[in-house]
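_Full entry_
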Amino acid sequence: MKKLILFAVAVIMFSANIMAADVFVGVKGGVGASDDNLKDIANSNFYKYEDNNGILGAELGFDFNSGASDRLGVKLGFNSYGKTSYEDKTLNSDLLLKNTIAVPLTAYYKYASNETGLHFWIGGGITWASLKFQDDRINYGKTKDQIFPHAAGGVEWRAAKFIGIGLDLNYNFDAKIKSSGMYRDFTGLEGFLAFRLYFS
């Protein structure tokens, strides 16, 4: 998977060199759909359950046809998800879904009538995700990977030529990751508030 990510970055960098493009870097935070079956598996009357559906992320991207109202772009993200945990008070053991990361690659169309002001974009792509499953009851721990498609869109306010503040929405399809009877399902909507810096 690391080779795929490096290849995607290389393609993006090559494309930026042959086309007029704005390069941007961004940070974002938000929440997203998250479902699991830890309580069904443990089935204990004395437990502590925590489900953190918060997401922190960063991204690198390129707006091609810089300066035009109709633009195409591509961006590569890195998202870190909150941990889900189930503590069985009876057995003094834990079920954990942790170390969850996702790397979405998104191609998009953007409409920008002016260099500043409101910009609108819509696109889609694929996401590679990795999740560690841990079951202390049977001394089990394993990391599983999954690739799934996503759709995305958003609105961004370019406060200045080099600064953007955006509201992004993603929808993940068929994003259930499973291992040893446990699962965490990210299928559904994600929402982010993003801050971006642009470089011409």
The chain has two helices and 13 strands. Residues 108 and 123 are 4 Å apart (CA to CA). The radius of gyration is 19 Å.
